């Protein structure tokens, strides 16, 4: 299946994983119909590589600015000051979202409260600059929904990226927020139950797709480095799940991505 325009809404095409062959990866993506790829920032240390990648391919690689929850520690206010400064006066031509932000309780909860404060603060900035949020939630979906609702006040939008939560959590996102859900290669994994409840829990009109490259490669590439050209595997799976032709699924995903990130068509 080929489509002329597909958008990877969350991919980390900067850093060591793509240091040696980024131009080849971008070329493969474009040949396979991936027209634009959104790059979330992690923290101050990741920004130089993000900046360099975007400057190489300014029409294709679109940056976001935010502080990732796993980079939140006792110095998180200094990191947030960097994010704030970039949103106020971008080093690059513009930012397309506030991300990657959110909560991660999987590895460590030492800075749980700090993560929540950093997330709420960046939601405020998303409202101020009228930018969508790219939201990371690992072992923290319920808290992330609560903070998104309280701090967002219905005045911003975003995507719960690479969703791997439960049917109940997905239904909460659908019924209690205006956010989208990012579906990654996880939906193709044999041990994932996401395909069992996805179509019953949220409509296709609220779904976008992503690679989260270099992570979460879809089957049959699982275990290898992920890249945007593999997005077609996710579209094929969604076609089965939603019982719609691949071309129809691809067209709807494009509409959703353009709407969410305020992109030109």
UniProtKB/TrEMBL annotation:
Q: Keyword Metal-binding on this protein?
A: yes
**Keywords assigned by UniProt?**
Hydrolase, Metal-binding
Q: Which Pfam families match?
A: TatD_DNase
The family classification in the record reads: Belongs to the metallo-dependent hydrolases superfamily. TatD-type hydrolase family.
Name of protein: TatD DNase family protein
According to its UniProt entry, this protein's organism is: Porphyromonas canoris
């Amino acid at each position: 299946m080929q489509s002329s325009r597909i958008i990877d809404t969350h991919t980390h095409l900067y850093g060591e994983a793509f240091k040696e062959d980024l131009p080849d990866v971008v070329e493969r993506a474009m040949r396979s119909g991936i027209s634009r790829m959104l790059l979330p920032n992690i923290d101050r240390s990741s920004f130089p590589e993000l900046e360099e990648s975007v400057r190489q391919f300014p029409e294709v690689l679109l940056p976001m600015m935010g502080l990732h929850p796993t980079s939140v520690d006792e110095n998180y206010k200094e990191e947030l000051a960097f994010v704030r400064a970039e949103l106020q006066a971008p080093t690059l031509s513009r930012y397309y979202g506030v991300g990657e932000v959110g909560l991660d309780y999987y590895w460590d909860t030492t800075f749980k409260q700090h993560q929540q404060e950093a997330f709420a603060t960046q939601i405020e900035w998303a409202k101020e600059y009228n930018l969508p949020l790219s939201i990371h939630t690992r072992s923290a979906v319920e808290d992330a929904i609560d903070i998104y609702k309280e701090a967002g006040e219905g005045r911003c939008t975003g995507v719960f990226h690479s969703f791997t939560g439960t049917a109940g959590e997905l239904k909460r996102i659908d019924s209690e927020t205006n956010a989208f859900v990012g579906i990654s290669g996880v939906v193709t994994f044999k041990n994932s139950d996401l395909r069992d409840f996805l179509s019953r829990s949220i409509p296709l009109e609220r779904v976008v797709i992503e690679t989260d490259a270099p992570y979460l490669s879809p089957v049959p590439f699982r275990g290898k480095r992920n890249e945007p050209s593999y997005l077609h595997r996710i579209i094929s799976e969604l076609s089965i799940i939603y019982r719609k032709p691949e071309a129809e699924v691809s067209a709807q995903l494009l509409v959703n991505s353009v709407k969410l990130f305020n992109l030109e068509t």
